[in-house]
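To assess whether ligand presence alters the predicted conformation, the chain was also submitted together with iron/sulfur cluster. Input:
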Amino acid sequence: MTHVDEDLGVVAAHFTPALLEWFHRHGRKHLPWQRELTPYRVWVSEIMLQQTQVATVIPYYERFMARFPDVGALAAASMDEVLHLWTGLGYYARGRNLHRAAQRVVAEYGGDFPDTLEGMQSLPGIGRSTAGAILAISRSQRHPILDGNVKRVLTRYFGISGFPGEATVERKLWTFADACTPAHDVGSYTQAIMDLGATICVRSRPLCSACPVSTHCVARRNGLQSVLPTRRVRKERPQRETFAVLVIRDDGAVLLEKRPAAGLWGGLWAFPQFDDRTRASQWLSERFGDVPEAMAEIYEHGFTHFDLQIHPVVARIGGVPARISEGDVHQWYDATQPSKIGLTKPVVDLIKRLVTAEPARQHSLL
Ligand code: SF4
């Protein structure tokens, strides 16, 4: 053992017991997914909690579990229904991967989740940290985890600088995460460190005075809470734009088109989209003849790697035109009696803003 390993062992020896004691006294233990710690329930919660806060996840999780109480029910569902229950949570690749992984668990593992890290990681959407968390919480297997919350806690506690997404920094963090992970009570520890990052060691203004590991925390001792974890050097985010056509029938139904399975918003239902206004107008007149169209207020949507400006082109029509046949690709969507399909967030927001808003407001926007 090197000096560094020894030092790390000593510091971790303070960290882990203090964290566990705090969790047993104050940690959250009544969240919906903590009621029954099966691999299926823990897996769904871990995926939903990626990039999403607990309070937002709870109602989605409850609805999801009511409809898909086990992996077999999820595997047997249609992708449309899964994405329907995901609508509004964002990062839809998570929902698609969840569905694919459920089908693999049923087809290849007879409905039982694999019980090794490698087996778990071979499923779509499950990386090393998520696999470790599921096995630690549901099967009490000792595996370190390293999600965003854990990275924040460890970089601050041990005073580790450098952007945590960089390979060398990440490798180092895995070593620290491993040194802190106990052999016993690993399920509680795993929930405890995620909980600490989510409720006490939060991104801005961490609550150090309430923190169970503050005594030996390097960031607190040196006033480095606001500079750790080190931020990524930001490049300018690319901007893109698109023209979304909202064809609204006089009964309020709006035309939606299914996105191709691969790519942006894969498998979700959205408005027909075009790269420029001319093509959008052409498409409209080819299908609906000479209908008046109007531009509504731009809608901005941020993706991980770029920002998208959506220009809504609104056309209100009378009856159902012959040139649109409903089926796998198009459907008339009635927001007052919604069908079970997955919608993109801009679609949900724009329907609220331009279709179901009161008439006076609609006119002011057109
Ligand atoms: Fe985070 Fe403060 Fe606790 Fe250090 S003392 S781990 S900075 S909350």
